[in-house]
Amino acid sequence: MKSPLITMIAITGKPTKSYIYDYMKSLKDNGIEQAMLYPRSGCETEYLSEEWFSTIGHFIDSAKELDMYIWLYDDFNWPSGDAGGRVTAVPEYRLKAISTRGDALGQITHKSQHNAGLFGEKFFPDLLSAHAVEYFIKCTHEEYYKRFASYFGAVIKGIFTDEPSIGYCCKDGCIPYYDGIGVDYFDFCGRDFFDDMKNCHVDFYLNAISVISERFRTNYIERLRKWCDSHNILMTGHLLCDDEMFWTVQHNGRLLKNLSHFALPGIDDIETYFDSKKELALFGVIEYASGENGAMAELFALGPCDMSYAKKRAMIYFAACHKINHYFLAISHLDMRGNYKVKDYFNDISPSQPDFLGMKELSREAKAAAMLTKMDYTPDVYIRYPYDICAKNVTEWIDFEPLYQLINTLTYRQIQWKYTDGEEERAPVIEFNENGEITLDKNPFDMDRIPRKITVTDENNDTPTGIFVRRFDNGEVVVINLFAEEKEYFIEGKKIFLGKYDVYSLKPALFDADEKEICASFKVRYRNENLIRAMHVNSADVSKLCSPTDTEVSFFVRKDTDAYLNGEKIRCPRDADELPFGMRNLYMCSDKCLLKSGTNTISTSEDLKYLPSVLISGDFCCRSVNGDVCKVELGPRKTEYTCKDKIYDYGAVEFTAELLIPKGALRLELYGTDMLTQVYLNGALLGDRAFAPYEFDIPREAWGKNVELKIVQYSSIAPIFGDVDFWDKTVESCGWRGTPSTENKHFGFSRITFKTK
User: Fold this and answer.
1) Cis peptide before 402 (omega within 30 of 0)
2) Phi, psi values for residue 445, rounded to 5°
């Protein structure tokens, strides 16, 4: 079984064959066995040119040699259906909407209305036109097959379609429109489309959206599905606004039905907000749509780039409990030049992360999680997806906040539920009616009428909010701490400690053991120089760099800008080999120089949140200081460490101490960290852990002996970007803010114990 983790490789620049192979090998060496090739901003190869297909061929050849799988992406950036602008270059292939009321009644519009701030005023492909969709397939799918047919179904596993929509050009009072809608409308309900529209017939919108939804399904989704099936690959991807009960109807029609026709249906959950009001409702959608191949989720793209492996694991298990067995990880950057265009958010699942080795353990966990999708559970209650109400009122906003709140309440009361579509009869069933009321089997809603089994309670015998429970029919139980307090809970009567993002299954420790805490002072060694940005927010072109002593540093300056230290241009004659993998070819490096004590100024322009103009490297610790301009203070690094200390740094840090291993010591345990951590005894690796429990088995031959204990920890890439919270609070404009970091990462640990017989 290949690991179900699938990195979305953002193809940027003009990568060579050898660069591609080395990159793919680095993924394979760290537990990643599948990759999707994602053409995105920052790509310098013309999309769908011969040079483009040659580049794709290098990825495919590398994957074959490394025994990996490839997934293709069916457009440039998103949304899908345009073939990088080729489809909408044909006027009759542009998406249309019709105004259904007011002075503009009957007028046809073509240009973008949905999120024009993101897309600008542009045309979108008409996915209701058979000719437009056939042309899209000809430009993309057929061109890939023409060159790589022998790999389809072997190395190439599927094609991903991203946020196709029929509603991009809809505005207030508009619905999607296509030539021939009048005939289809009459065949559906026996009435005239234009008469019903003019006369505001009570069922006009419901009938029209039903017809449009069917057209979208048959013309786009099923057409792509049929092509993929006949070429022995999976059609996968996700639809726009899949987390919005109201907006999804305008963009997708009948969401549950249409998504169910994907070979591998998917959802978009790139924000990873466990406590979002719509998170649980969204995962109910994909659970309904999942089929014989399972389902997929696009995860993590909005970051943050210091997201702990514990949170990633929790999300993967949470997804698996909703039938998701393919995890598309966004984004794995070939290099970071995409941040020139997409400036406001950033996540990087690639060798640029110092702690990338942790992907091996995440991959092992993902395999175990995916096995959960083979099991089912019986819901305590069904929730009817409110398609009919949305369709009837498609031009009038409906607030589904009460339904979202109810779904969250049911979940955290450990009541299991599933969606049912409007065409199915289920009981008991919760519905949201046209008066905005929630009913249970057509009666006023009463929570106490729904039977439930309590699995997790707190010390007061209450059900805690923030803990997710899935009880499978075979008796297996999974418990995930999404955002509840870290403390002891009772799980089926047994007291269990649940830390942040912990995942618990009915596999407790096999033995009881005594605990002995280690009291030791550790020597600290830094495997690399520290690295921190000089930050310039908004129009500021000067930042302050302060040091209490003369400090030897070097500067990395982005190739497309100049930088000045105290008014003198920083010369950069060297390649930036010391920078993270995805940044090296975008910067040049200065020679070492002595930064004088006191306050120094760094002047530059075009500073970007996740592509800094200037980075400073040296043997120092640092902290960002908020002010009128961004200020960074440098100081000496710690050389001694106790468990009460914290070290804020970038890269890898070693902690070593001499100590006696107690007789009967079965394992060593670390607490108070969520970093990738390795433990060595006398130079022999005991193992690496990326999330709790940080447990390491002790070899019997070490009992009763004095040994050197070495603990190595790895950070994410995040520390080099400085105080991004300050950036977010200060920046004057932001297109789309990423998920904020929830904690201040630091090296170290709060406690170390031996567990003994």
Assistant:
1) no
2) -65, 135
pLDDT of residue 757: 74
Domain positions in the chain are: 5-87+127-163+217-374, 394-505, 514-524+639-756, 529-635
Q: Is CATH 1.10.3720.10 the classification given to domain 514-524+639-756?
A: no
Q: What is the DSSP letter of 319?
A: H
Proportion of the chain above pLDDT 70, given as a percent: 96
Instruction: Encode 200-225: b = buried (16+ Cβ within 10 Å), e = exposed.
Output: ebeebbbbbbbbbbbbbbebbbbbbb
pTM over 0.85: yes
Give the Å distances, CA to CA, from 698 to 509, 667, 687: 16, 5, 10
The dihedral through the CA atoms of 388, 389, 393, 395 has a sign that is negative
The architecture in CATH of the region 529-635 reads Sandwich (2.60)
pLDDT band of 630, cuts 50, 70, 90: low
Assess whether the previous peptide bond of 79 is cis (omega < 30° from 0). yes
Pick among 3.30.1390.20, 2.10.10.20, 3.20.20.70, 3.40.50.300: CATH of 5-87+127-163+217-374: 3.20.20.70
Assess whether the region 514-524+639-756 and the region 529-635 belong to the same CATH fold: yes
pLDDT 10s digits, 322-369: 999 999 999 999 999 999 888 888 999 999 999 999 999 999 999 999
Q: What is the pLDDT of residues 113-144, one digit of tens each?
A: 666 666 767 899 999 999 999 999 999 999 99
